[in-house]
Amino acid sequence: MGNSDRRRTLAEALQAFHSSAQKAGPAAMASYSLIGAIIMFGGLGYAIDRWRGTEPWFLVGGLVLGLVYGFYQLARTVWRR
Length: 81
Known about the structure:
91% of the residues lie in helices and 0% in strands. It is mainly alpha-helical. The two termini are 41 Å apart. 11% of the residues are buried.
């Protein structure tokens, strides 16, 4: 295989990778939003529990709220396609 064949093969591979990354972008962002919402609302609930001394109720509520909001964002992304 010559240099020009290798370059063409590499260019085709990079184009295929770029195309796949563009298609997966919204789904990846939605999954990061799900994880971020769980961490953010769970952390907020934990902080309120520590402040008010009501463990674990705000933590549980924050985790549930994070799940609901995260799955809502995920569903919006999937149904938009």
